[in-house]
Amino acid sequence: MAIHQHVLNLVELCVRKGIRQAIVSPGSRSAPITLALARHPEMTTRAVADERSAGFIAMGLAQQLRQPVILVCTSGSAVYNLAPAVAEAYFQEIPLLILTADRPKEWTHQQDGQTIYQTDIFGKHVKQSFELPADFVHPDARWFAERATNEAVNLAWAEPRGPVHINIPLREPLYPVGDETFQYPAVRVIEQLTAASALSSETWHRLQEEWETAERKLIAIGQGPHDPALLAILKKISEEWRIPVVGDVISNLPRNGEFVTQQDIFLSSANEELKNNLVPDLLITCGQSFISKQLKVFLRNHQPKAHWQIQPHNRLADPFQSLTRLIPHEPTAFFEKLFSDIDYQRFVSNDDEDSDDNFQEQWQTLDRKATRLLSQFLKDETVFHEWAVIQRILDELPADSQLHVANSMPVRYVNFCGMPENQRVEVFANRGTSGIDGCLSTAVGAALTTDQLVTALIGDVAFFYDRNGLWNNLVPANLRVIVLNNHGGNIFRIIDGPSKQPELSAYFETSQPLSAENTAKDAGLAYTKVASYGNLKTALADFFSKADRGKLLEIETDRYVNAEQFQRYKQLVQETFLDRQNR
């Protein structure tokens, strides 16, 4: 038997429960875990030296696979470096199984290396923390480890998804000795069944009654993966019942003339008459967070009479401060049943009365007007600025590819622009905590799981902050990185608070003279730099083509010009939507 047989048992249990991917950061105390994963014939194990990047790469894998991924690091401060990715995964509901090696407890605070307080180190940012015993002499210790690991793995799969932590104290020797062989035994698997969630007939009747009594309904979709079935039923509801459906680009709600995707533009108008005409009686939401600040402010200040949130679990979130019903149900199935039941009732009663057609028309008219305004603003090539650059990049994204957008201004610009339906580009962003850390690493992890082209659109500060995401031997040929380099944190020059402070340049913008060229060279990426529309067009013609290695495109802009153009856009919005007739 191996000296750390309980670790082998844990790995075998993970495999039997469908977990087949692992990211490990090299370390000595974690060697038994690393070797157990690396030598298992059914486990794919990859090494990433920087724990912070490793955490986000694992999250990118889990995000795409929609199943737990194992994340391993050694003891000590290495564990704390996983924290940003763990927090993001928790709030984005992405499943990770975190295995941290530890020294036995008696060595804590005894001036022994790489020893810190690791028990419950991630606090409330994991679904639960477990800790295995350091010694297995008594049979109860082996029974406890078996039970705890089953519970932890089951929890990683359960809704709401999220990270689960197992801390594993390990005694020396840490490496196999002599002719020791690894045996992965037939471990005891404790299956956790999921109760079928269903609303009672009485509950459905109450929901239908409330639906029918609300004249003006609005459906708002938060962040979520591309879901053809959900999009199909939402489009049917919009077309047949004349109900506006609104969503951000990270909801993967496409710009198709039916859905409303430019709400952040027209809701930023100071026209209160316009906003009063858009207030719903019933708001129905599903998905996770919304980028659109204007939508959040609008719905907080103009609250509906009723608000339903549809989600497959009971964790309560009320970002619009108006929630009246939390409905634990899978959203697609909910909307399909709601449509079917109400459609049948209307057929039986010969009642074709739908929602207020004018209500949807107002939302869609404003959406079309905002689209025209933005198109006119961005097609002008007299000034080279990053928003116009992003629109040209989006126009050239290959169909059936992925776009990973970094936080700060890039995700806001992309949200303003939206993605047309015919491109079939799935959009991702780390909006669980909305930090700039890990945006590049997440895209690297995603690219490892697919043959699709994966484009990471990222600002310079986020890029340099996370360039260790490229410091590994994993960077795949289908990765495309676009760095918007304005040599500082441009968002602070654009948003109202810091932009008006005399300390802006010294303490907010983080000015830097760096170029991404050396990072690209170190990572083995093909590198191109542009600073004009002509050069951008030429570069993009080749950038998205298939190649035997990844590519990095650096686009240099002037942050002062970027801020001036954004202010010009804001002025155009006010001039356009203050028109009382909204023609």
Automatic annotation (TrEMBL):
Reactions listed under catalytic activity: isochorismate + 2-oxoglutarate + H(+) = 5-enolpyruvoyl-6-hydroxy-2-succinyl-cyclohex-3-ene-1-carboxylate + CO2
Domain Thiamine pyrophosphate enzyme N-terminal TPP-binding: 10-114
Keyword field: Magnesium, Manganese, Menaquinone biosynthesis, Metal-binding, Thiamine pyrophosphate, Transferase
Pfam families membership: TPP_enzyme_C (PF02775), TPP_enzyme_M_2 (PF16582), TPP_enzyme_N (PF02776)
Enzymatic class: transferase
Domain Thiamine pyrophosphate enzyme TPP-binding as annotated: residue spans: 435-548
Annotated family: Belongs to the TPP enzyme family. MenD subfamily.
Protein's job: Catalyzes the thiamine diphosphate-dependent decarboxylation of 2-oxoglutarate and the subsequent addition of the resulting succinic semialdehyde-thiamine pyrophosphate anion to isochorismate to yield 2-succinyl-5-enolpyruvyl-6-hydroxy-3-cyclohexene-1-carboxylate (SEPHCHC).
Name under which the protein is recorded: 2-succinyl-5-enolpyruvyl-6-hydroxy-3-cyclohexene-1-carboxylate synthase
Source organism (scientific name): Larkinella punicea
Gene of this entry: menD
